[in-house]
Amino acid sequence: MSLDKKVIIITGASSGIGAATAKLLIKQGANVVIGARREDRLSEIKALAPDQVEYQVTDVSKLDDVKGLVKLAMSKFGKINAIYNNAGIMPLAKLSEDHHDEWQQMLNINIMGVLNGISAVLPIMHDQGYGHILATDSVAGHKTDATTAVYSGTKYAVRAIMNGLRVEENQNHIRSTIISPGAVSTELYRSESDQASAEALQQMWQGENKALTSEDVASAVVYALDAPERVNINEILVRPLAES
Which domains are present in the chain? Predict the structure, then answer.
C-alpha cells in the first residue's frame, strides 16, 4: 500500500517519536496534521513540506483541543485515514514519594490524551467506513519496576483501552495498533522530575547499550500504517537489542 495522500494526525509531534514519524510520513507522500504544545517545533516541521503539513497547538488532556486538531484535518484535507495518539510524559518516582501532581498529569496526558483522540475521530471514521487508530504504549505497559508504578499503570491502561477499541471497532473497519517501545533516546526523559533518575536513565543507554532512536520507532509506526487494509497489526513491541 502507498501512504501517498493519506491523511494522518499525530499528537506529541513536536519532538521525539512524533516528530520522527511526521518527517518519515512526509517522505512517503502523506499529509500530516500535527499537534503539540510547542508551536516553534511544529512550525519547523511544516516548513519541511508546507503543502503536506498543517499544525495546531494542542494540549491532549483537553478534549476541545484534540477536536480542534481533528477539525483542522477535515477542513484542510477532507478525510482522516489515521490518528497516532503519541503524546505522553514519563515522570518516575516511588509511590512513597507522594508526587500527586505528577500522577494527575500522567493520568491526564497518557490516558485521557488517548481517550480524547479516540473520541474525536471515531464519529468521522464511522461516517467514512474506515480508519486506523494508533497509540504509543511502552514496554512499561507489560511490566512494572520500582519507580514505574504509576507510569506503568497508565501504559497498562492504554493497552486495555486499545484492545477494547480493536474488539469494538473491528466490524466498522477501523483498525487499531499499539506501539510499545523499550528504551528510546528522546526528550521524554526531561519529564522526569528527579534529575538524578533522569541522568541515570540516560547514562544506562550509552555506549554498547544503545537505546532505540526515534526514527527506529517511527519506522515501526509506518510499517503498521502501510499494512494492507485486510491486516490489523495489534501491537508492535520493539526494544533495543541490549534490552531484548
Answer: 7-237 (3.40.50.720)
